[in-house]
Amino acid sequence: MPLIGTTEFFKGIGPIPFEGNASDNPLAYKYYDAQRIVAGKPMRDHFKFAVAYWHSFCGTGADPFGPGTLQHPWDIPSDPLEAARLKADAAFEFITKLGFEYFCFHDFDLVREGDTLLESEKRLAHIIPYIREKMEASGVKLLWGTANCFSHPRYMNGAATNPDFRVVARAGAQIKTALDATLELGGENYVFWGGREGYMSLLNTQMKKELDHLGRFLGLARDYARGKGFTGNFFIEPKPMEPMKHQYDYDAATVIGFLHQYGLQDDFKLNLEVNHATLAGHTMQHEMEVAAAHGMLGSIDANRGDAQNGWDTDQFPNDVAEVALMMLTLLEAGGLQGGGINFDAKLRRNSTDPEDLFLAHIGGADTFARALLVADRILRESPYPGWRRQRYASFESVAGRDFEQGRLTLEDLYALAHTQGEPPLTSGKQELLENLVNRYL
Is 312 annotated to bind ligand? Predict the structure, then answer.
């Protein structure tokens, strides 16, 4: 058996430096300067960049039309524990060379799932101390953990919303184990992605019963973790469809309503994904604005979709204009609440060189960094904030202020309407604002 921890998987690639935009070195950051102060704090603290264990070290490039194109050396051993240790060695080598401080995982990203629940638990119990050693040696932290309750055939009809209670119980056991692993590794948050929590047909679905079960299940998970001393955030990640026809966590507004319905709003926030916003028919800025308005802008899965493909392509972000609008909302909201920027993105099927994984993350980090600089300049240097405030200036009048503070009745509005005459048309100046943003890109 090879010596664990002594193999260099990404040979010829050292720590990724910041060299600035004048550099033509593809393995260097052009805009992401971790220590640079922007809007009062270092870039690294705005972002808390994290590497996704599943796409970066588990993904093989497989698609519905063919097997994987990536042959990872850590997948070669037949012994699942040896393979898990090698994967951890590769993961922490990559994360530290990249200069990121965080990673995220699903339970069975860390080690292959066993044939039984007991065997799966034993494997996780074996690999978690090794992961902890890697974290302590590198200084890399866990942004959040989660559980894969969607890939196994047992979850074909969902996990917490499954019509078979035996599956619900099995999901509960898996979530407990994943929570324990997250707690043991000092995870700052825990994420629930609905996966298959939804329906394929309403003909065989009792929607209210399934929603009630989901609300109760999440409450049990919260109570268990809080009882174990977990003080971090629980996140729900909205997605409208895929793999199910309709998923119960459709978008930010739907999830927020659900959390309030089941009394979960004080413990849960949102982990928003760019590609999921696209699938829901929204912009990511919209989803972030909705979450921020409710104090639930928790974390972000950074990726993008493809306008010509109607599915979750999970490509690395590279659209500075799109991300700049996101960063405007992030800065005006005061930042993320507990979470960070997790690169939930995967290499394209024909990107097969080891350095491609570095190039993808470098490009993603630079896109966010450049967008943050753009948004900060717009807020500091341009008339943009003043123009937005001016549009609502009428609410600074006595009557407008009284309305906002709840001191007017409907009869008062009626009386005011009769005294003020026909309101003038006031331009929204959309084109002016769009042109302003383009000036700073």
Answer: yes
Average pLDDT over residues 307-312: 86
CB atoms within 10 A of CB 281: 9
- Tens digit of each residue's pLDDT (9 = 90 or more) over 103-123: 999 999 999 999 999 999 999
Give, as one character, the DSSP assignment of residue 202. Answer: G
Cα separation, 323 vs 368, whole angstroms: 6
CA atoms within 13 A on the CB side of 413: 9
Mean pLDDT, all residues of the chain = 96
- Looking at domain 37-381, does it have CATH number 3.20.20.150? yes
Domain boundaries, the chain: 37-381, 386-440
Computed on alpha carbons and rounded to an integer, the radius of gyration of the chain in Å comes to 24
* Residue 344 known to bind ligand: yes
Closest among 317, 259, 322 to 285, alpha carbons compared: 322
136 is in an annotated binding site: no
Q: Using an 8 Å Cβ cutoff, are 184 and 230 in contact?
A: no
What's the pLDDT tens digit per position in 138-152? 999 999 999 999 999
Q: Which residue has the tokens 């500075």?
A: 320
Report how far apart, in Å, the C-alpha atoms of 99 and of each of 16, 48, 94, 327, 426 are: 7, 11, 9, 22, 49
Catalytic residues: 106, 109
Report the predicted TM-score, pTM, of the whole model to 2 decimal places: 0.96
Q: Where are the alpha helices (DSSP H) in 185-337?
A: 207-227, 252-261, 274-279, 284-293, 320-332
The residue behind tokens 């009048």 is 397
294 marked as part of a ligand binding site: no
* 196 three-state secondary structure: coil
Position 84, amino acid: A
Q: 304: which strand partners?
A: 315
DSSP, collapsed to helix, strand or coil, labels residue 143 as strand
Cβ within 8 Å of residue 204, ≥6 positions away: 163
Rounded (10°) angle between helices 252-261 and 284-293: 30
